[in-house]
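FORM 7B: Structural annotation worksheet

SECTION A. Query
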Amino acid sequence: MKTNLLEARAISMISGLRLGLEDLEDGKKRREKEYIWYGRLTNPEVLQKAARVETQKQSSLKGKGGTIRVRETTGMGQVRYTLTGKAYSGRGDADEASTPTSKDLHEVFKAITGESMDKIRYTFPIEGTDLKWEVDVFIDLQGNPKDWIKIDLEVPDVINEFPPLPVVLADMIFGGNAEYTQEQKAKLDELYSTVFINKL
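SECTION B. Predicted structure
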């Protein structure tokens, strides 16, 4: 079933989904549908208009069918730790479950993986819907922003019409509901193995 953006709001309310599955840390499995844009940010001043800003540091273990990670989130005057498992069924499609965990487990995951994905997340609500843009600006170990960013849009079902992005991207990569090209796949592999990851 395919929907447009306005119908997505109604489906979201009916299904009981909130703005993001990552905000639901009750250990229950839920279906996630997500669209992702990648690119170089050309107007960073727009980030000052975000409704929420938080810093995320996570380390992940990857398996054949998905990933499990521990994330440290700092924002809203608090620090929290979350354990999340994702079982992928297709690009942007996953069963996800999250539960609160400890700083100690976060440290253990960092020691096991030897790497960390560190980013500042800027959240922009989409007017007239229950949806939001999540703009991730990746940072190095000293907190300096990197060149490429990632933008997530989590929806309750497949959509064909997308609202304007909250920022302007150069060299944008977006597959929509189609498959990535081989060139795009190669670039994303490079980004996830180098730019988006800090070696510890």
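SECTION C. Observations
Residues 63 and 87 are 9 Å apart (CA to CA). The chain is about 20% helix and 50% strand.

SECTION D. Sign-off
Analyst initials: ____
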